[in-house]
Write a structure and sequence with these properties.
Elements (H helix, E strand, L loop, with lengths): L3 E9 L4 E9 L1 H6 L3 H4 L13 E3 L13 H16 L10 E5 L1 H4 L3 H18 L7 H4 E3 L2 H16 L18 E5 L3 E6 L3 H6 L5 E6 L5 E12 L3 H14 L6 E4 L7 E2 L17 E4 L3 H8 L31 E5 H7 L13 H12 L3 H9 L9 H22 L32 E3 L2 E2 L2 E2 L2 H12 L12 E4 L25 H5 L4 H18 L2 H16 L8 H12 L8 E3 L24 E5 L26 H11 L5 H9 L8 H7 L4 H12 L1
Parallel strand pairs: 1-4, 4-5, 6-13, 10-12, 13-14
Antiparallel strand pairs: 1-2, 2-3, 6-7, 7-9, 8-9, 8-17, 11-12, 15-16, 18-19
């Protein structure tokens, strides 16, 4: 096991699956080189944009054909992961496939069959670490997805490691998290002290551990709204629109640009093309009316059984926007920035300006929008599909944010508190410390804010050994003392790092050693052949004198153990150095990472394979007998270790004594007389030496 630990997560969403690869230093190695400040920080996770890959559609589309999910879907993603995880580290690398809303809506039987096929295929085709399929391959609840997202956002923003630099007032230093996908939406935040005490039973207890072993505890409220993602909301909207009248085939849709005609599934209609369902939606381009018609989808009229509630009658503690500053990802980012804030990646969200830009775009005719798309007016990523959907998505986002969750309308409403007051669009949300009530983000310090990162942070933290046996485990569960019954363990375990003082040059070039040995042997054979028969015979005599005498006859024991051990090896545990070779490992995008600072940040493994384990098995040392010419064996160490361990003389040495160059029963005089006059005997001796 090398100093780098790797993790692979497949985010199986409703529209597609994306593979993420992360790496971090082994906890022992990280602690040995950490400063006092770094000891109080969480493990440093590294990634690279080349390490991610997404394919469409999602695995939920394999509900009726689960046996196809491996070859038709997973194979491409796993192959991508194997390109970047060093081969020797694959058995030590955990693999997770965590599915979200798309799989949640599948029938239970289909869901189970797909997950089983995923696990079986991964085990058959790779050696990634999969000790427990129920833990590593599963459909996670929306609350878990939201909690992972909350961890990722605060990890990147510094809310965990530098609380003094993120003091929002009232002792609060973490950020809230909002996520919206195609099928569901999540919210996660730490309520202020008053609300946390009032709603203690509704909170999730989260435990993390720093590099130095210090335990961190947070109490977070998390909930999910299934069916409130943009695609599911659009389906509910269209259903309500079609049910509003049964006497017409054309339904005016204010959420579509004027002049655009689409099917009820949202596909543009060609005037000459016949449709099986002749009902169609006709765009009118009236955004204010679109806002009005999407408002009922919030279902705020549903009974609230546990006050207070936000959407769909679901309980949410009161949000104190003086201290709770939210970041929104996924659709919150795409819908606010990809068209309306193009070229302003860090622009602070301003409700007034945003709504004005949306209205300006959505009031255009469809022909005008098509011309703008062809000229790349809104960037290369904006195509016709994006353009025809964005007006509905913008109206839905505005309603959810401001009428649903209650985020103050920056630019219209006067906010309380000196930190939050603003009435204009402000460039550079980072410079403001993300202190607006809401800010859409995609990346922080060039790292994507993904819930998969939160999962990996939790996993890496669980590998840090606790200072004492009484320390509680890393993970999350009900807000109770100790370890609650529903406590979720991340799956990591402490893996000691076999640190050595090996020469760096040797460690960094271990893969070159076998080739070097072969080259030296070839040169030796050429020289030996060219030196002539007499010189070869003379060399054979000297070798016979060096190795053929009994114990104590020629040279000290140290000389024999050094030179003879190098030629023949010894009976001792076999060690093999390995070298990591992850591609793209030196150009990470984490702002605080310097991957080229010293040898510790290289991909080389300056340890041995001692203690390598797949899963959580206890590392073992297997004693194997080294034989002459074994690649990668350091015979000096082998001999000395064998002597210290009392392993005794090697078996082949006894064979030489019994029937090799000479027998102990022959007299020294007889050997002296026979050796000069018996070339054949010398040749025989050399043959035995080689054997």
């Amino acid at each position: 096991m090398g100093k780098w630990r790797y993790g692979v997560i497949l985010d199986a969403g409703s529209s597609g699956t994306r593979v993420h690869i992360y790496r971090w230093l082994n906890s022992d190695k990280a602690r040995s080189k950490a400063s006092e400040e770094e000891l109080q920080s969480l493990p440093e996770i590294e990634t690279d944009k080349k390490w991610t890959k997404k394919i469409h559609p999602g695995i939920s589309t394999f509900g009726e054909t689960p046996h196809n999910v491996g070859p038709d879907h997973l194979d491409e993603l796993l192959s991508h992961a194997l390109k970047y995880v060093p081969l020797e580290e694959v058995p030590n690398t955990p693999l997770f496939l965590l599915a979200t809303a798309g799989m949640r809506i599948l029938p239970p039987g289909q869901r189970k069959a797909v997950l089983q096929e995923v696990c079986d295929f991964a085990k058959k085709t790779t050696k990634f670490q999969l000790p427990d399929c129920n833990l590593h391959v599963q459909v996670i609840p929306g609350e878990t997805e939201g909690l992972y997202g909350w961890i990722a956002a605060n990890y990147l923003l510094g809310g965990f490691d530098s609380p003094k630099d993120h003091d929002h007032g009232k002792g609060h230093h973490t950020y809230g998290f909002l996520d919206m996908g195609g099928a569901s939406a999540q919210i996660a935040f730490a309520p202020n002290a008053t609300e946390a005490k009032k709603h203690a039973d509704d909170l999730t207890l989260l435990r993390l551990r720093t590099v130095g072993g210090t335990a961190l505890e947070y109490r977070v409220f998390v909930t999910t709204w299934l069916g409130f993602g943009v695609n599911q909301a659009r389906q509910r909207y269209v259903t309500a629109l079609l049910e509003s009248s049964t006497t017409t085939k054309e339904f005016p849709d204010p959420c579509l640009p004027s002049g655009l005609r689409v099917t009820k599934d949202g596909k543009p209609i060609d005037s000459d093309e016949k449709q099986e369902d002749d009902r169609e939606l006709v765009g009118t381009g009236k955004f204010s009316e679109c806002l009005h018609q999407t408002y009922p989808l919030l279902e705020k009229e549903k009974e609230c059984l546990d006050e207070p509630c936000l959407l769909n009658g679901q309980h949410v503690p009161a949000i104190d926007f003086d201290v709770n500053h939210f970041v929104g990802v996924s659709e919150y980012w795409h819908t606010t920035h990809e068209i309306f804030e193009m070229g302003h990646k860090d622009k602070a969200y301003d409700f007034k300006t945003y709504q004005e830009r949306v209205e300006e775009f959505c009031s255009r005719s469809w022909k005008d929008i098509e011309k703008g798309i062809s000229k790349k007016k809104w960037g290369k990523k904006v195509d016709e599909t994006t353009a025809l959907e964005v007006c509905f998505k913008a109206s839905w986002l505005i309603n959810v944010l401001h009428d649903g969750i209650g985020v103050p309308r920056v630019g219209l409403e006067e906010l309380q508190g000196d930190q939050n007051t603003t009435k204009a669009v402000i460039d550079g949300a980072k410079e403001k410390g993300f202190l607006n009530p809401f800010q859409a983000v995609n990346k922080i310090n060039d790292v994507e804010v993904s819930w998969t990162l939160g999962k990996m942070v939790l996993y890496a933290a669980s590998e840090v050994p606790p200072p004492s046996e009484n320390d509680l485990a890393v993970g999350f569960g009900s807000n109770e003392d100790g370890i609650p019954e529903n406590f979720q363990y991340p799956g990591g375990a402490y893996l000691p790092y076999p640190d050595t003082d090996d020469d760096h040059l040797l460690a960094d070039n271990s893969r070159r050693i076998p080739g070097l040995i072969i080259f030296v042997l070839i040169i030796f054979v050429i020289i030996f052949t060219a030196c002539g028969r007499e010189r070869r015979q003379s060399a054979g005599k000297k070798l016979g004198q060096l190795f053929g005498r009994g114990s104590g006859r020629h040279g000290s024991s140290r000389r024999r153990r050094g030179l003879a051990g190098k030629l023949f090896g010894s009976s001792a545990p076999s060690y093999e150095r390995v070298l990591e070779s992850g591609e793209g490992a030196d150009d990470f995008e984490l702002g605080s990472v310097d991957s080229n600072s010293d040898h510790e940040q290289s991909d080389s493994s300056d340890g041995s394979r001692l203690g390598r384990t797949s899963g959580w098995a206890t590392p073992q040392i297997k004693a194997t007998q080294a034989t002459p010419g074994t690649p990668g064996v350091d015979s000096d160490n082998i001999v000395s270790q064998g002597g210290n361990l009392g392993l005794g003389p090697p078996a082949y040495a006894n064979a030489i004594d019994r029937g090799g160059l000479m027998s102990r029963t022959e007299s020294r005089e007889r050997l002296a007389r026979s050796r000069p006059s018996s070339p054949g005997r010398l040749r025989s001796g050399r043959t035995n030496l080689r054997e």
